[in-house]
Specification:
alpha+beta, 4-stranded mixed sheet, about 35% helix, about 180 residues, 3-stranded antiparallel sheet, binds zinc ion
């Protein structure tokens, strides 16, 4: 099995995405997994504004990166020039959300789950050292999850998000209601 096929399976990309290449960088001591959409993506894509199809490829954004779980004990990142779709009904142009993206947009779902599990057990700074990510980036990720949890409970009201941000100070997460939220 080719390494690209292996990563395709490990990432659970399905028919809509393919691994173009996988490179190991000695300088970064990390794997970079280059992913691209396939034509099949557009068969399943629906406009997030009006919910209609068909949606066609409009263009691609600059390459974005998502930190993923370690591979063979090395850090790994998914790299992708995400496509933007254009709705054939309402003309809305939007960035397609990839299946691997977590809530914070810079980490994969799997990486976020791993980091959040560690954050239940130890201070964020220590988690940052273990996973090789700054604690500020981890706090931003945690806040994105708190925002999503608040949105589920209170609906899309900015007041809820603001109050969530205000009380979610470092150290407050594990001894407040956020434990229930997360
Ligand atoms: Zn639309």
């Amino acid at each position: 099995m080719k390494i690209e096929e292996l990563f395709h399976r490990l990432l659970g990309l399905g028919e809509s995405w393919e691994v173009e290449s996988c490179e190991y960088s000695e300088e970064s001591n990390a794997f970079f997994i280059m992913v691209k959409e396939t034509e099949r993506l557009w068969a399943f894509e629906r406009c997030p504004k009006c919910g209609k199809d068909p949606v066609a490829c409009y263009d691609h954004v600059e390459p974005l990166r998502w930190r993923h779980l370690n591979v063979f004990s090395k850090e790994s990142e998914i790299v992708c020039e995400l496509p933007r779709g254009e709705c054939g009904k309402c003309g809305h142009i939007y960035r397609v959300k990839p299946p691997w993206e977590g809530k914070s947009k810079h980490f994969t779902e799997e990486f976020e789950a791993f980091a959040l599990t560690l954050m239940r057990e130890m201070p964020v700074k220590k988690v940052g050292k273990i996973v090789g990510v700054s604690d500020m980036r981890l706090w931003r990720m945690l806040l994105a999850h708190v925002d999503a949890a608040l949105r589920e409970i209170f609906g899309d009201h900015s007041h809820s998000f603001e109050s969530g941000r205000r009380v979610c100070a470092p150290g407050a997460v594990f001894d407040s209601d956020f434990e229930k939220l997360l």
